[in-house]
Design goal:
The structure holds two protein chains of two kinds.
Chain A (H helix, E strand, L loop, with lengths): L1 H9 L6 E2 L3 E4 L1 H12 L4 E8 L2 E7 L5 E7 L5 E3 L9 H10 L3 E3 L24 E6 L11 E7 L2 E8 L7 H5 L4 H8 L7 H16 L5 H28 L4 H22 L8 E2 L2 E2 L5 H27 L1 H7 L7 H7 L3 H5 L7 H4 L20 H25 L14 E9 L2 E10 L2 E8 L6 H7 L8 H8 L4 H4 L1
Helix pairs in contact in A: 1-2, 5-6, 6-7, 7-8, 7-14, 7-16, 8-9, 9-14, 14-16
Chain B lengths: L1 H9 L13 H17 L4 E7 L5 H9 L11 E3 L8 E5 L7 H10 L5 E5 H6 L21 E3 L6 H12 L2
Parallel strand pairs in B: 1-2, 1-3, 3-4, 4-5
Helix pairs in contact in B: 2-6, 3-6
The chains are: A alpha+beta, B alpha/beta.
């Protein structure tokens, strides 16, 4: 297999694609790459359609990121990657729905994001089995999706999720949009990760045009990204505990989260920091008073958070619910390239800030917490440790924030760019082709694409009552996935 | 845990003073509704949230309403798990083609009298997704809307003001 990767790496890169290479491949190499992935090498990142071609992004083939592009056969057919490597299956179903390329020999030919036809759920048959259909409208205040449980008594024997309810056609709207409008759309793929998406989109555009942005803009982007991570993790830690009927943690964590959002509104003018990052830099600067306010915020969280961690760790009734529940095996996390707390609670030590470093993270001190237990408790602990890391990062950024401009106006950019940015739930990937400042094709991949299928595996053998707990501990995005 | 509970009891409540509606347009609309609602309820509303294609930004701010600083329930406003128990549907998102039927069925499942509040720019006219063939472009395309609360997303304070105007507090 090494020879195949060498042959792939030896192909000439397509001109105007940055910062990593894109290569045109033939069907032999395309299928070889699928087999290479299925043998446990590298990591599948994404697969998307583009007029008469399909593109596949890979990690560590042989190093960093690379994109393989295949011109489809007449009739827009291409050999299925999912047939050999299951993580690609849902991507191929979506490609067919969104841009019309058809994987042949695909193991699952059902539509995915297109709901215009009746849907056939997978069969689950056996003595004593019953089904529980849930959603798309749920009892709580969460996004819509359908979960089909097949159970034996209280025990779940199969969960099949059907997603796509919040499919808004983001990628289609991107085509023909100018950079300003495209950035608004990117920032609304998943509202909780609006900063991460805006940074990923901006970095992809800047890579396409070879645009250098002011140093201070990089640091302010990281500051916003860490504040977003902090707010989301605080919300999640409380919400997971609340789903185990321990409302006290939710009350305290939600106060801390609210403090972060109010500080964001005071410093940058928007609670979720929407539309503040754009190709060229950032749209809002931080003055001295705002920096002081953030320092105060860090101090107040540092004072309050350890008590909450102690409360979580010493409440046996809560631990009884989270320890050993919803275990995701490390092999599956690795196979699917699961990012964020889902991957890192199951031994996959990947963080885009470290693995594919972008400024200013290459100059900041932080560690990447990893655990191997893979249960709800481990996913909570990764968040707790992430909170501590983010607090440290924010303090370093405030201390060392360089002076200067915050925006460099992008001129009519032409080219292809790729970016991976670590959002709170994992790596957000954006690929873009821009011509004279207009987007021709943009693909946005939420980390949830590679986490949703794993929830179905982790829940097996658990009881129905533990599903909300497991689901919240994964906290996959519906909107980011459905596009 | 005992230490933390004791601290909570010893401290002043975190819940903040009641905000006052200050947007004349919102106030005028809400006033009309108030008369109808007053006749039926005594200042209490059961709200069912429906995400009809939101980016999840609106849901984050709905969640914030339940934190101790806003504490929505003190006003007699509470979120319920079933449309059967609801007086108000709080709808977010531009209404995707894939959520049209679910929204319609949720509305139909809500017993009359009922009101619909469209929350956020997308629910108003589709927002940034207005031109998408995968979206209908606003809640009004599917069910009648009684009150629109603007913002992207509306802040918790704007939401409370809208709801309070609705119940006439």
């Amino acid at each position: 297999m090494t020879t195949l990767i060498q042959a792939f790496a030896a192909l000439p890169p397509v001109a105007g694609h940055g910062p990593w290479p894109r290569r045109m491949v033939d069907e032999t190499i395309w299928e070889g790459l699928a087999e290479w992935l299925s043998n446990g090498h590298g990591t599948f990142l994404s697969l998307w359609g583009d007029s008469e071609a399909v593109h596949m992004a890979l990690l560590d083939a042989p190093e960093g990121v690379s994109v393989a592009s295949l011109a489809c056969r007449p009739g827009r057919f291409f050999p299925s990657v999912g047939a050999l490597h299951p993580p690609a299956i849902r991507f191929e179903r979506a490609v067919r729905d969104l841009s019309g390329q058809i994987p042949f020999d695909a193991p699952d030919a059902r539509p995915w994001l297109d709901h215009s036809q009746p849907y056939a759920f997978l069969a689950s048959e056996g003595e004593g089995l019953h089904q529980i259909p849930v959603g798309p409208v749920h009892a709580g205040i969460i996004e819509p999706g359908h979960f089909r449980f097949t159970c034996n008594g209280e025990t779940i024997v199969r969960l099949e999720a059907r997603l796509g309810y919040v499919h808004k056609g983001v990628e289609a709207l991107m085509t023909g949009a100018n950079l300003e409008r495209a950035a608004l759309l990117a920032g609304r793929c998943s509202g909780d990760s609006t900063v991460a998406y805006a940074i990923a989109f901006s970095r992809a555009v800047e890579a396409a045009g070879g645009l250098k942005i002011p140093e201070r803009a990089h640091w302010l982007r990281a500051l916003m990204a860490e504040l977003e991570r902090l707010a989301n993790h605080l919300g999640d830690i409380g919400a997971v505990c609340n789903d185990a009927a321990f409302a006290l943690m939710l009350a305290h964590c939600s106060v801390l989260r609210e403090k972060v959002l109010r500080a964001c509104a005071a410093c940058f003018g928007h609670r979720l920091m929407m539309d503040l990052v754009a190709p060229g830099g950032v749209r809002a600067d931080l003055d001295g008073e705002a920096a002081w306010r953030l320092q105060e915020l860090m101090a107040s969280i540092r004072a309050a958070f350890p008590q909450l961690v102690e409360l979580y760790d010493s409440t046996t009734s809560l631990q009884d619910r989270t320890v050993g529940t919803g275990v995701l095996k490390p092999e599956l996390a690795r196979q699917y390239g699961a990012g964020g707390f889902v991957g890192r609670a199951s031994g996959r030590a990947f963080d885009a800030r470290r693995a594919l470093p972008y400024p200013p993270y290459d100059r900041l001190r932080f560690s990447i917490p990893v655990l191997t237990e893979g249960d709800v408790n481990a996913r909570v602990w990764i968040r707790i440790k992430d909170v501590e890391q983010s607090l440290g990062l924010i303090e370093q950024i405030l201390e060392r924030l360089p002076t200067g401009d915050i925006f460099a106006e992008p001129t009519a950019i032409t080219g292809e760019g790729f970016a991976m940015v670590e959002g709170f739930r994992g790596d957000v990937l954006v690929w873009v082709r821009v011509k004279n400042g207009l987007v021709e094709r943009c693909h946005l991949r939420d980390p949830s694409w590679l986490q949703w299928p794993l929830l179905e595996a982790a829940i097996q053998g658990n009881i129905v009552a533990d599903f909300p707990l497991c689901n919240k501990s994964f906290n996959c995005s519906y909107s980011g996935h459905d596009l | 845990m005992r230490k933390l509970l004791f601290q909570t009891v010893a401290k002043k409540p975190l819940t903040e003073p009641t905000p006052v509606a200050d947007d004349p347009e919102l106030l005028a609309l809400a006033q009309k509704l108030k008369q109808k609602i007053d006749a039926t309820f005594a200042g209490s509303l059961a709200i069912r949230a429906v995400d009809a294609g939101s980016c999840n930004g609106c849901e984050l701010e709905i969640h914030a309403l339940n934190n101790p600083l806003y504490d929505l329930e003190r006003f007699g406003l509470k979120f319920v798990a079933s449309p059967r128990h609801a007086d108000v549907l709080l709808v977010t998102g531009p209404v995707t083609q894939n959520m049209r039927e679910a929204l319609q069925r949720t509305y139909d499942a809500t017993p009359a009298p009922k009101w619909v509040v469209a929350m956020g720019a997308c629910a108003g006219d589709g927002g940034v997704f207005a031109e998408s063939p995968d979206c209908l472009g606003g809640v009004e395309k599917v069910v009648p809307v009684d009150l629109f609360i603007p913002g992207c997303p509306p802040t918790p304070l704007t939401l409370i003001k809208g709801f309070l105007a609705l119940v006439g507090a």
